[in-house]
Specification:
The protein has 437 residues and is of the alpha+beta class. It is built from 11 helices and 25 strands. The chain folds into 4 domains: 71 residues, Alpha-Beta Plaits; 92 residues, Alpha-Beta Plaits (2-Layer Sandwich), CATH 3.30.70.330; 103 residues, 2-Layer Sandwich (Alpha-Beta Plaits), CATH 3.30.70; 71 residues, RRM (RNA recognition motif) domain (Alpha-Beta Plaits), CATH 3.30.70. Keywords: Repeat, RNA-binding.
Length: 437
């Protein structure tokens, strides 16, 4: 038994365990004056106000196995009698709030660039500078906010979260640095207060090649922040986020009723559409090229087995990486009907399989329910409708008897003109119209 001390040494502290979790474990025994996370060793040091409090805690946990988030942690007296600020590991980092954060990324399955970090951290305040580097502890970044409270808020909100589902976990501490030195604006460092910095030292080859490689291998990177924001830092069940195939093969279509624009209306719910090609030698097949692999994965996941025009759709990844532009392809890359150019996070959030309820927006201010019904009723029996106003804009919910009728209405009438306005239609995840009142 180590000699008595008011400092407690905790082992097996996994990355998922936060400082807050540890505080809750020891707060019942007295006031905690200091807490140091030794992340690299999966350990922590915790100083109680006096030896008696530490003794009470260790006595209690000698009879009861302490667990945090399903993980057993092991506690004993520390060899330290007192924690000095220098124990907050060698660089003097720890819990003293500072506007600069030291971020370590664990389980890094994707390359993380300055752009991705900026998208993840900027919702919490103005990010002035970011520097990234590879260390023995793994990939690390220093992130400098304009204000200290922004850094505190970011750390509270993001500590232990994943940038992508199941990987790229954020481990955040305060840095003891006062100011970051940034000499170059490239994918490894950036000064957002000085856009005129060069991208590299004169005489070195361009860094842009490296940028491009990331773009090709992981096209979904650009959406990282929107995806993280939409799904609360995770991903919907069944979505891996690791697919990089952008082109989708749709088969078992109804060749008499389908065309490129109708496919666009359906697939654009899950991402931006680059181009679409109906296959002449197989009239019930089509290729749809999405903006990136993540969007293609959403489309395959949510549309597999959907019913449209009396047929059950088969939706799979194509072996073609993209569709070659030609006389028989329809181009949509510059279409202003692509939904994910604006409010990407909101659009990701609304992704779902076809439902019986559709949501109409960008309606004329003086529209009536009767006009909406007559615009849509040739696609099936309408069970219920509701017209309402959101942020001063007219919107509507329309409930059909079946998912197939709702899908047909969306496919045929999204981006159609109603009383002089081009209307937008998406599926609603509400179960019944009452829920909105």
């Amino acid at each position: 038994m180590a000699e008595l001390s008011k400092v407690i040494h905790v082992r097996n502290v996994g990355h998922e365990i936060s400082e807050n979790d540890l505080l809750q474990l020891f707060q019942p025994f007295g006031i905690i004056t200091k807490l140091v996370m030794l992340r690299a060793k999966n350990q922590a040091l915790l100083q109680m106000q006096d030896v008696a409090s530490a003794m009470n805690a260790l006595q209690f946990y000698s009879n009861v196995q302490p667990t945090i988030r399903g993980r057993n942690v092991y506690v004993q007296f520390s060899s330290h009698q007192e924690l000095t600020t220098m124990d907050q590991n060698s660089q003097g980092r720890g819990d003293e709030p500072n506007r600069i954060l030291l971020v370590t990324i664990h389980h890094m399955l994707y390359p993380i660039t300055v752009e991705v970090l900026h998208q993840v951290f900027s919702p919490h305040g103005f990010v002035e500078k970011i520097v990234t580097f590879q260390k023995s502890a793994g990939f690390q970044a220093l992130i400098q906010y304009q204000l200290r409270q922004s850094a505190v808020a970011a750390r509270t909100s993001l500590q232990g979260r994943n940038i992508y589902d199941g990987c790229c976990q954020l481990d955040i501490q305060f840095s003891n640095l006062d100011e970051l030195q940034v000499n170059y604006n490239n994918d490894r460092s950036r000064d957002f207060t000085n856009p005129h910095l060069p991208s590299e030292q004169k005489g070195r080859s361009s860094q842009q090649a490296g940028y491009g490689d990331v773009g090709v291998a992981y096209p979904q990177m650009a959406n990282a922040a929107a995806i993280a924001a939409a799904f609360g830092g995770g991903l919907p069940p069944g979505i891996s986020g690791t697919n990089d195939r952008c082109t989708v093969l749709v088969s078992n279509l109804n060749p008499d009723r389908i065309d490129e624009d109708k496919l666009f209306n359906l697939f654009s719910l899950y991402g931006n559409i680059v181009r679409i090609k109906l296959l002449h030698n197989k009239p019930d097949h089509a290729l749809v090229q999405m903006g990136d692999g993540f969007q293609a994965e959403l489309a395959v996941h949510f549309l597999k087995g959907a019913m449209l025009f009396g047929k059950r759709l088969e939706v799979n990844f194509s072996k073609h990486p993209n569709i070659t532009q030609g006389a028989d392809t329809h181009e949509y890359s510059n279409s202003n009907l692509n939904r994910f150019n604006r409010n990407a996070a909101k659009n990701y959030k609304y992704c779902c399989s076809p439902t019986k309820m559709i949501h109409l927006s960008t309606l004329p201010q003086d529209i009536t329910e009767e006009e909406i019904v007559s615009h849509l009723e040739d696609h099936g029996a309408i069970v219920n409708t509701k017209l309402f106003e959101m942020n001063g804009k007219k919107q509507a919910l329309v409930l059909f008897e079946t998912e197939e009728q709702a899908t047909e209405a969306l496919v045929c009438k999204h981006a159609s003109s109603l009383a002089g306005s081009i209307i937008r239609i998406s599926f609603s995840q509400l179960q019944s119209i009452r829920e909105t009142s």
